[in-house]
Give the backbone structure.
Amino acid sequence: MPGLIKPFRQSRFPVSFDAGKILLLLILIIYPALNIYASSNGYLFSKITGEADPQIRSIIQLPDGRMAFATVSGIDIFDGTKFSHLYSVTGDNYNLTGYDGFHHLYVTHSGKYLWIKNRYQLQCVDLSTEIYSTDVGSTLRNCGVNVEALDLFADSSGRLWVVSADGLLQPDTDLSIPLDKVKGDLLDLVTADDNLYLFYRSGDVSCIDLKSGKILYSLAAYPAEEQPKYSFTSHVVEADHKFYQIRNGGIGGFFMFDPASQKWSKILESNLRLNTLAVTDSDIFISTTDGLLSINPATFAVSHLQHIRTQSGNILASELSSIAVDKSGGIWVGTLNRGIFFYNPYLYNHFIILKDNRNKEPIHQTISAFSEGHDGTIRINRNGKSSRLLFPEDPDEEIIIEESDNASTKYAGEYGSGATFISNNGGVFFSEPDSYSIFIPKDSISINHTSKPFLSGILINANRIEPLKEYGGDVVLQKILAQTSGISLAHNQNFITFEVTDPDYTCPDPKFYFMLEGIDPQWREATSADVKDRMLTTTYTAIPPGEYTFRVRLSNLPDSPESSLKITIRHPWWSTPWAKTIYAISLILAVIIIVKLYIRRTKKHMEAEQRETYLISRIRQLIEEVDRYKSESPVSDHQPESEEKDSSSELSEEDKAFIARAMELVEQNLDSPGYSVAQLSSDLCMDRTGLYRKLTSLLDRSPSLFIRDIRLRKAAALLKEGAMSITEIAEKTGFSSTSYMSKCFQERYGCKPSQFQHNCP
């Protein structure tokens, strides 16, 4: 759109010009009139579905390959197949008084922390558990920050930098660097080649030697009078040993700083607000409030892409709030309120056919722009004539248009929308004012796949396991699965399902190779049934106790990156070494006891035999003596046989009265579980020792057994009546619980109360 963008090759300050640069500048100034804003481009985006919030504010790639998206409501993390939704309301907001910009994401400490800055506040996500920090101040202190943080940054190495009242602090090295307050707030920083580059609000960059902490130089991107134009927000990206920076204020500006030559260049300025910046090998992208700016890094030629095309044939016009490039060259675009879109550079060959419009007059199509026959032939219907398209095998060659004089040529089953068309083989065709833009899927996608698979989920006995949550009484995962080296499971937790994704979204059809060492004798290649929506799902059932390692990779090459998880299936307690030791000791003790019992029984039997032998011998001896006495003495008078009288000791009246009184007191307090021996002895005006001796001598029962027997007799009578439940009887007879009454009842009567009701003997 003319007037919105003003391209520059070199800034007028502080760089001098030579004749060649002036000529190039004149060409570029004239170039906008020669269709610099042409919308034709080779980018076809696909919609990513599943995000929790379509209002994307910032994008960053995590060290493990996943993509993190800051939204209005929190953080969405995409593992290549599905999203994890982390809602910001669960976290703490730290007051970051030195930052007045919008969403910015940083990852520090080898991927442990994700920091989210946004308009005077700071939040933090612990990526090892994917949980928002509930005390950001405490998290900062754990990172070595013992001062109040006014602003926060991270460099490309993942080191944390904090702005405090005393200057810039790097907690890991205790490096403290004073900031030039005259230059205003610090907006960005970058580390490269042992140097630290500070980008100030004034437009200055200061280069500092990280070893000595000394300032090497300081340079301004533009004169002081232009500072209000670019004094608000900033975004810096390092690429090819150069620093690219977008700035906003009264106007948007795009700059480049070359540390080798120590020179600034102004590439363009625009009335559009420049949101974020991303750099690939072939393009520089800037997301704006009105589409996308594409800049050639070699010539700095600018294209304004007000619309982005999608694989579904749609043309999207929206504010692009954020853009990022992943490690594989894929381009991620976040929109203001329509979610996430992705461009895969490996999917399509792009062709452009210019329309015959030499007079620059509008072209009127009389029928559909595109059609497809049953044989897959694609035709363009232009002004009543049908032309067949012949696509070359080499994408660098042009499409051959085979003209036809037959204006009425049509194919059975043709379909098309005029503006867009999708063929059966996935080709996407766009009819634009001055050209046809055609995207043809590549027959094969050759990607040097070096990404590491991501262990995204594990299910045990069909239950999904999450970090810090109990399963079977144990916390299986202290961190997310991908950051866990091993887990320990019970013997009955042996039905395990593994979920693995490929975080490299540029590979549309990843190949997975996996094995469970200890179960699988060799690597297994995942089948189409194992992989759905780019996720490998494999299940192992009835795994016996032991040590195992699950391994997975995305290539069958031996040196390809792989992820692994050690799994310990614990033996049941009855088959553990300790249990086996106890079994052995118990067996030995049982044998010893049996042997001792046998010896004791044998000894008693022998003693009994000896006593019997002795008795028989003694009886015989007595008989012999009696016979001898009779033979020697006269016949004696018949002596009446003495009759033995059974002596039975009877209780005295006083003892009977004592027992009756004791029984009466217990029965009176039968429904009181707390009625004890101490209370009985007190009611009988005796001490506990005297009561114990009295009852033991009279009844051979301790006082506690005496009280329990009375309760049990009453319980037995109530059970026979059958009018009350066992629970009611236990309460009626003063037992503390039904289970305790049942135990005592079985000891006394040899059966349970429920059995007693059914004529238990």
